[in-house]
């Protein structure tokens, strides 16, 4: 077996946390298969977080990774919001939306002491963070439980910063990755690089375990990352069609179509760069727009358009999160996918 003692799992495979398309069901399936399942927690209410924790801890004794965001809360900016809604106004008119009646969308809260109060009763073995790390007091509290802390780095500078500030392991996230890029020291997109350019640079310069992420979807990709010195590989997109996900029909269809070969990093949906399949809004406004409100408030106005369009069977305003490599997507259970992938690795 390819046991990884650092993660306390049988297989060096981490299922990437994917908010909006999964819950505990997917995480449990991967952990039961011997990999490390992950639960995205940034969009969960406190009650839902507790429910998911209860479900996981009553279902398995194997480790599960709990993932949170560490962004700074957006500051209210009525002028910027007004400019963004002016950009979207032609779409509001097309779909008959009164912008004054748009309600707040799903929240994305940064990790805080209220969340820690809930987690303290469970003392997770592994937690991961996106957009940096919690503040010193929060991080000390988490590590006092004996929890191993992982966080994403998209540059060598971020990796060094994470190690210096207490991360036990670093997820080297390449530009190919689907969903939100974890950049946090700079918003300069010219600093972003591919997984197999980033991974060896980080491995050479840090002493903590490094996990490869971004564009890896098959056994050969996993083997290549392990050969370069990665301790494990984090895979997200390949799991999107598994039976344990909550991937919507519209998202599912896009992943199965030729459109999945065309992705872009865009800030239109949330205000932060994230990779998804190109659709109407990205084509017409361009993937990056400097009028979007700060993360995550950009999601409010566009979510109203998404709701109306999806009711008509359109994906025009839907964030179709996906990495550049959809070749590993399979319509099987996550347990089967994890075990099949691991079986192939051992034969290489």
Total number of strands:
11
CATH superfamily of the largest domain: Aldolase class I
What's the CATH topology label of the largest domain? TIM Barrel
Query: So what's the overall shape?
Result: globular
Amount of helix: 25-40%
Largest sheet: 8 strands, parallel
- CATH class categorisation of the largest domain: Alpha Beta
Q: Class by helix and strand content?
A: alpha/beta
- Count the domains: 2
Residue ranges: pLDDT <50 for 5 or more in a row?
Answer: none
Order of helices and strands: EHEHEHHEHEHEEHEHEHEEHHH
What tags apply to this protein structure?
single chain, 348 residues, alpha/beta, TIM Barrel, 2 domains, eight-stranded parallel beta sheet, three-stranded antiparallel beta sheet
Description:
The chain has helices at 24-32, 46-59, 78-94, 113-119, 136-143, 156-164, 195-205, 219-227, 249-256, 280-285, 299-311, 334-347; strands at residues 13-15, 37-40, 64-69, 126-130, 148-153, 169-173, 179-180, 210-213, 232-235, 263-266, 274-277. Strand 8 (210-213), helix 8 (219-227) and strand 9 form a beta-alpha-beta unit. It has an eight-stranded parallel sheet with strand order 1-9-8-6-5-4-3-2. The chain is built from twelve helices and eleven strands. It starts with 12 loop residues before the first strand and ends with a helix. Helix content is 36%, strand content 14%. It folds into two domains: 1-71 and 108-240 and 328-348, Alpha-Beta Barrel (TIM Barrel); 73-107 and 249-321, no CATH class. It has 348 residues and is of the alpha/beta class.
């Amino acid at each position: 077996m390819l046991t990884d003692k650092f993660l306390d799992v049988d297989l060096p495979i981490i299922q990437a946390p994917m908010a909006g398309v999964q819950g505990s069901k997917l995480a449990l399936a991967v952990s039961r298969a011997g990999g490390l399942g992950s639960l995205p927690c940034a969009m969960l209410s406190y009650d839902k977080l507790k429910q998911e924790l209860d479900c996981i801890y009553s279902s398995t004794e194997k480790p599960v990774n709990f993932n949170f965001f560490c962004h700074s809360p957006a500051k209210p900016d009525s002028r910027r919001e007004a400019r963004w809604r002016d950009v979207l106004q032609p779409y509001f008119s097309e779909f008959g939306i009164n912008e004054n009646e748009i309600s707040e969308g799903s929240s994305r809260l940064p990790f805080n002491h209220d969340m820690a109060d809930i987690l303290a009763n469970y003392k997770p073995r592994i937690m991961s963070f996106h957009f940096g790390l919690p503040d010193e007091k929060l991080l000390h509290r988490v590590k006092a439980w004996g929890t191993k802390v992982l966080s994403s780095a998209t540059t060598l500078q971020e990796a060094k910063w994470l190690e210096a500030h207490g991360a036990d392991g670093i997820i080297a996230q390449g530009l190919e990755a689907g969903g939100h890029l974890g950049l946090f020291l700079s918003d300069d997109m010219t600093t972003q690089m591919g997984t197999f350019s980033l991974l060896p640079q980080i491995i050479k310069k840090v002493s903590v375990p490094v996990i490869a992420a971004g564009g890896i979807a098959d056994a050969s990709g996993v083997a290549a990352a392990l050969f370069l010195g990665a301790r494990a590989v984090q895979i997200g997109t390949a799991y999107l069609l598994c039976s344990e996900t909550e991937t919507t029909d519209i998202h599912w269809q896009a992943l199965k179509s030729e459109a999945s070969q065309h992705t872009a990093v865009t800030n239109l949906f949330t205000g932060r760069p994230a990779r998804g399949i190109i659709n109407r809004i990205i084509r017409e406004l361009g993937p990056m727009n400097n009028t979007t409100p700060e993360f995550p408030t950009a999601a409010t106005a566009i979510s109203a358009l998404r709701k109306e369009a999806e009711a008509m069977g359109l994906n025009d305003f839907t964030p179709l999160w996906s990495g550049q490599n959809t070749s590993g997507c399979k319509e099987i259970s996550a347990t089967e996918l994890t075990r099949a992938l691991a079986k192939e690795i051992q034969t290489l």
